[in-house]
Design brief:
2 domains; 5-stranded mixed β-sheet; alpha/beta; Nucleotidyltransferase, domain 5
């Protein structure tokens, strides 16, 4: 067992999550520490400006990498650890483009620079090998979810509500693992709150709670062909056009977009081998009472934040990339046919040494 540090900057564009995990990449991982470094509004806008791979990507990538190095230093200081104790850093970077149908995925973040800044080896570029082999390149946390849930009654589901929503369905046996993106998570709602209400997000679901769902707009959003497509499947952050809500009030638009997220998760049931006994929710969406109430109503089984198991839902994706970095070093699979549609279990990642 060794100490790994994972870094994640998700599609919500809210900051860097850093987590310490003790693991060898196969035995049950043990989380040991977490630190979140929020992005200031100005950098968040700069990051938003390069989505799609446009604009001053190189400049933003360098700044992004320096902010990740800052997060590493802050987590080590808070945990009483030193860089020399780390075996490697798992550096996801920031997804700016995801088009697996074109065999393209792009996560910005300079692994060589981060290794120099921290003095620690860095594994990055986790998704490219999967996409090049014909996989979806997402979701990438399911193997970590399964490793943490060995003792829980099955089938169960882990639902990540970040910018994009994704589900990990876990049944019995090693092969009983299915994962795919469900639809929007928080990205549409966050963008709406920023544009129409001048808010960074719909904090505590207050905007949506004050509004009314416009059923015609919701029906238009749900006509997207993505929902009928079978898994494996994944999404870009900006895959859905919010045009159906453009003429609504800020409150009604937020209520309708929240309902869109809930209904997209409910429709994922059509693609699961068996209904989960329980849904465990991670990502920022678990803090939104409107989303959580809607999910409990539509799924009709227990829907709980992962904190119900004593987990830290803010840390989970960063922990996953610490675990995947360990697996990359060991040559173990990062993705499976059931998680991304890759033709065979596949490893990946690129290693950069500090020198």
């Amino acid at each position: 067992m060794a100490l790994f540090l994972g870094l994640m900057s998700g599609t919500s564009l809210d900051g860097v999550d850093a987590a310490l995990v003790e693991t060898d990449g196969s035995d049950r991982p043990r989380p040991l520490g977490f630190h979140a470094l929020p992005y200031d509004p100005a950098f968040r806008e700069r990051l938003h400006s390069v989505l799609g791979g446009r604009g001053a990507v190189a400049e933003v990538e360098r700044e992004l990498t320096h902010r990740h190095a800052e997060a590493v230093g802050a987590l080590l200081a808070a945990s009483g650890r030193e860089a020399r104790e780390l075996r490697v850093i798992g550096f996801h970077g920031q997804t700016v483009l995801h088009a697996p149908e074109e065999r393209r995925t792009w996560q910005i973040g300079d692994g060589a620079l981060l290794a120099r800044l921290t003095g620690v080896p860095v594994v990055c570029d986790f998704r490219s090998a999967d996409v090049a082999a014909g996989g979806q390149g997402a979701p990438f946390a399911p193997l970590y979810h399964a490793a943490r849930l060995e003792a829980q009654p099955r089938p169960l589901a882990v639902l990540n509500l970040g910018g994009v929503g994704n589900v990990t369905w876990i049944g019995e046996g090693e092969a009983a693992l299915l994962a795919f993106d469900t639809g929007p998570g928080n990205a549409l709602l966050d963008d709406w709150a920023r544009r129409r209400a001048g808010l960074p997000c719909d904090l505590d679901g207050a905007l949506a709670a004050a509004g009314r769902v416009e059923e015609a707009a919701l029906a238009a959003l749900l006509r997207h062909p993505y929902f009928a497509a079978p898994p494996p499947k994944s999404l870009d952050r900006d895959a859905f056009d919010p045009a159906p809500v453009q003429d609504l009030s800020p409150e009604d638009g937020a209520a309708t977009l929240a309902a869109f997220t809930v209904e997209s998760v409910a429709r994922a049931l059509d693609h699961l081998p068996a209904p989960p006994l329980r849904w465990l929710v991670t990502g920022g969406g678990r803090h939104n009472p409107v989303l959580m109430r809607g999910l409990a109503r539509r799924l009709a089984v227990p829907v709980e934040p992962v904190e119900a198991l004593g987990w830290n839902g803010d840390a989970l994706e960063a922990e996953a990339f610490a675990y995947l970095a360990a697996r990359s070093l060991a040559g173990l699979p990062l993705s499976l046919p059931g998680t991304t549609g890759v033709p065979r279990p596949l490893t990946g990642g690129r290693l950069f040494e500090p020198g």
